Amino acid sequence: NLPTETAEAPVTERTLVLVKPDGVRRGLSGEILRRIEAKGYTLRAVRLLDATPALLHKHYAEHEGKPFFEPLVEFMMSGPVLAVVAEGEGVIPGFRSLAGATNPTEAAPGTIRGDLGRDWGTAVVQNLVHGSDSPESATREISLWFPEL
Ligand code: GDP
Ligand code: MG
């Protein structure tokens, strides 16, 4: 059979998506997964869990020492997180585009953060989702959240 336009290439890119506690709390997990699937990416693994300080310190190691680091870790422990491995060609930058800018006030309409997020006046930016920012980050983060994969 000839490949079709929608067929997956053999080497498939993966990214780590987190629906942060604000997204889970507000009942937006389904809407966020829907947008990932509607874009054409595949859900490879999904897990709802309470993140530990050790996991979050590793996950956010690049931000250690910044003023928002401790509030960020506290926020990420304020409720369950939905961890997702999404798969597809270009999914790492593609999900970052779907997510929109870090600050939900500045995120463009049409994006997850732009459509569904806002400034709540809290110490940390509550912006619904995390997405890996490079292939190296994706590999590292997937091994943290899904050690069995
Ligand atoms: P992301 O990759 O778009 O999620 O952004 P970063 O990796 O730069 O930051 C990680 C997370 O820390 C963000 O998603 C926000 O929740 C939070 N954050 C980032 N920058 C700031 C900031 O300047 N102030 C505050 N309060 N929180 C921030
Ligand atoms: Mg980041």
| Total beta strand runs | 4
Q: Let me know the largest β-sheet.
A: 4 strands, antiparallel
Low-pLDDT stretches are none
Write out the strand line-up for the largest beta sheet, numbering strands in chain order.
2-3-1-4
Based on secondary structure, the structural category is alpha+beta
Helicity, as a percent range: 25-40%
In the CATH scheme, the class of the domain at 29-132 would be: Alpha Beta
Radius of gyration: 15 Å
CATH fold-level topology of the domain at 29-132? Alpha-Beta Plaits
Strand content: 15-25%
Principal-axes geometry comes out as globular
Bound molecules: guanosine-5'-diphosphate, magnesium ion
**Mean pLDDT reading:** 95
Oligomeric form: single chain
Assigned CATH superfamily of the domain at 29-132: Nucleoside diphosphate kinase-like domain
Note the run of SSEs as H and E. Answer: EHHEHHEHHEH
Give the name of the CATH architecture of the domain at 29-132.
2-Layer Sandwich
- What's the tally of helices? 7
First and last CA, distance: 30 Å
